[in-house]
Amino acid sequence: MHQLEQKPVALVTGGAQGIGFGIAEHLLTQGWHVAIADINPSSSTAAQAALAQFRESFRVMRCDVSQEKDVERCVRSVLEQFGQLDGLVNNAGIANPHSGPVEALTLADWNRWIATNLTGGFLMAKHTVPHLRQTKGAIVNIASTRALQSEPDSEAYAASKGGLVALTHALAVSLGPDIRVNCISPGWIDVSAQQHPSQAANLSPSDQQQHPVGRVGQAQDVAELVNFLLSEAAGFVTGQNFVVDGGMTRKMIYAT
Ligand code: NAI
To answer: Which atom of ligand 1 lies nearest, measured to the CA of 188?
Structure first.
């Protein structure tokens, strides 16, 4: 086993791009070792650049979080490479919420959303818990404000994220006091910088101004909270769902 200098170690799923990459990058700057597990590990040039910058502290693994064998192999590999695990961030997801009219939603498509967005979180928790117990670690699940409210034709996504919120409090009660488990439900997060850094986001003034805070969210907004929830500073916080949406779900909206 290759034991590196004793920094905390986090496993971030779906970390090759988007919010997951933002979380991975932020944790690296905060002194963590980070392994990312992604079904498409080479999807972003940002991750490749980080790999070069944080060479000793950063690992990228191919893993489909909905496949138990992949998850087992990935967790084993993190332990072999870093010797311990202190934090799990279940971020991997099919981020497109639109599954079409429910009458036309195939069982296969329903199962695809649930398998990645919900079962993936269960499998990762199942296989990391023995290691997180040893370090008194923490888990953060990335759900969505769509666990709480909906647009039409988003049943599979909404159900998967609602399930993740419920999985969070169930795990928190089962795994305490050794392991804390929390959830973050982001609203609209612009991930263009973590997907295609050369292409600026095409956001209108109204996209920004409709948010009570005056802007659309960034991956960093989620990453800051992940870092806090994984840290000992959050030692009295478990089983919770934190909404990070610039206040959108607090606005009363009736068509005029
Ligand atoms: P994204 O599509 O940019 O990133 C998702 C990542 O997950 C990709 O790297 C993808 O390859 C990976 N992934 C997909 N299926 C996987 C699987 N089976 N196994 C392993 N990795 C897999 O999406 P984004 O926007 O960064 O979303 C990240 C998470 O945040 C998702 O769970 C999404 O539902 C959630 N979220 C995103 C919001 C947003 O506005 N961007 C809002 C609320 C929640």
So the answer is: 40
